[in-house]
Amino acid sequence: MMETVRDLLDLWDAYGLGAFPPDEYDMYVSPICNFLNNGNLTESQIAGYLYGLLPPVNQPDDDHERDTLMVGYKRVARILLRFLVQ
Asked: Is the pTM of this model over 0.90?
């Protein structure tokens, strides 16, 4: 699972670090895997955790902006859930 999380973070590239070394997100892999091992999680719970762990660089000014930013977090959460179910 750790390799999957690492690859997904690299693909998602929440902070636009594509030009940096490929291990730039490695420090987040273990905390995410530990969180995912907590049991029956929902997409919203995973997205909220990712949002807290990897908050957007520019904080949203209102709920609409936050909802728009959460789309990316929810997409990653949905993919992680699919791997957890298998």
From this structure: no
DSSP assignment letter at 19 = T
Phi, psi of 82 (to 5 degrees): -60, -40
Q: What letters, b where the CB count within 10 A reaches 16 and e where it falls short, cover 27-42?
A: ebbeebeebbeeeebe
Q: Which two structure tokens, joined as six digits, stand for 84?
A: 């957890």
Write the CB contacts of 75 (distance below 8 Å, at least 6 apart in sequence).
12
pLDDT digits (tens, 9 = 90+) for 9-29: 888 877 776 666 667 788 899
Distance CA(52)–CA(49), nearest Å, equals 5
CB 69 within 8 A of CB 57: no
pLDDT of 44-56, one tens digit each?
999 999 999 988 8
Residue 28 and residue 51 in contact, taking contact as beta carbons nearer than 8 Å: no
